[in-house]
Amino acid sequence: MRLQQGSFLWYLYLDKIYCLLSVRNVRALVEYFHMLDVHRRNSLNDVLFYHFLHHVTDLKKTQITVVFDMLDWSTLGEISFDQFYMLVCILLAQESHLEEQFMYRHSRPIFGLFDLNGDLKLGAKHFHMFRFLFNIQKQQLRELFHDFDISGDRHLNYNEFKLYTIFSVDKAQERQKAEKEKSLLKKKMSQQVDASQESLGKNGT
Amino acid sequence: MRSTTLLALLALVLLYLVSGALVFRALEQPHELEAQRELGEVREKFLRAHPCVSDQDLGLLIKASPEPSGRHGAAQPKPHGDVRSLWTTATLSQAQLDVPLSKDEDADEDESDAEPEGLEEYSLLALETHGGRSAEAKSAEKGDDVKPATEKSFLKSSLNVLKHTPHQAYWEELQNGLPLPLTELMENEVLEILTKALRSYRSSIGRDHFLTKELERYIEGLKKRRQQRLCVSAS
């Protein structure tokens, strides 16, 4: 999923550590929400929500419906600002490649979102439905249930889910470190090659 | 009288004059500097609030307008002996101002009661307006019709505007707390989204449904607001 470049959400900045928006950004977002709230009910209905998400992202219709059902936890058929804010943060986290960090920081509300039945357990089916929101691959999902389903009931409870988020953050940090080292190594190598070429040139003359 | 005594007397008079000038300078310089700084600030605020007016244009307008306080004393029936009394007059003449005041007037007066700085700023403005009026009176006495009355009233109103009501767009931005380009971006985007939503409304619940009509009205209002903003920024 990608945010549309140049759209309003594209200009918001999600804090990299706490995965939250600044107060100034939230104020702008409130203003934006009020503009979208045509019927002055402090909420967006499904049609407005669909067109909003369709305009700012490249999500498909079925995916937007899934997101709407997920956010409309009180089954009012409308999305209030709290849920809207949550969605925007998820979109921005994905845009800035902070999915793991975001899940780790806000594990409780995300667990609540994924837990559609309210039985405090996450099934593989539900997880699979929402994996596009956090860029989780199929293989990763299989590994997740294989490694973290400690109780063996094919469901994740909150503690198991929390463990998964901690593990995925560690993994993401390691990946970042490895990438950094790789780029540093590349830089050093290129510098060394340049230096050796220069010395060869000098010897030749 | 001996020439040495005369010279000594002359030196004494000169010394007296110089010391008097020094004392006067020491007393008045801080006030003058303060007044200059405040005037500069007001001018800068005005220029910032009205980006369409250039610095040179404002300078030309001020040059073309009557002298603010230079010939103040001459125009008064009772000339003021001391420059300092001008400040007192300015402060006292607040209530006598015949310039129509904006709605923020009461609030400003309250502020001026609470803060001495606010009072000073106000009196500076009052001095300017007062000075303008005295010069006007003088030109009327001379039968001088060269300066049109509209120009003077414009100066008055511009001074008033600069103090009380900043540029509309600037004021809106201050109140809103959001930068204007961002608001424009938001409005344009929302307008696009809502236009698409209106099409869906029409096809699904019909044109005559009250929700469709509400959305239509909202879009119209949004378009009007955008148009107004464009007009303001263009002017």
TrEMBL record, chain A:
GO terms for cellular component: cytoplasm; sperm principal piece. GO terms for molecular function: calcium ion binding; calcium ion sensor activity. InterPro entries: EF-hand-dom_pair (IPR011992), EF_Hand_1_Ca_BS (IPR018247), EF_hand_dom (IPR002048), EFCAB9 (IPR042798). Residues 180-205 are annotated as: Disordered. GO terms for biological process: flagellated sperm motility; sperm capacitation. Keywords: Calcium, Metal-binding. Residues 190-205 have a biased composition (Polar residues). Pfam families: EF-hand_7 (PF13499). The keyword Calcium applies. Residues 136-171 form the EF-hand domain. Coiled coil: none annotated. This is EF-hand calcium-binding domain-containing protein 9.
Automatic annotation (TrEMBL), chain B:
Residues 105-119 have a biased composition (Acidic residues). Residues 63-82, 97-119 are annotated as: Disordered. It comes from the Eukaryota. It comes from Carlito syrichta. Residues 1-20 form the signal peptide. Keywords: Signal. One of its GO terms (biological process) is flagellated sperm motility. GO terms for cellular component: CatSper complex; sperm principal piece. This is Cation channel sperm-associated protein subunit zeta.
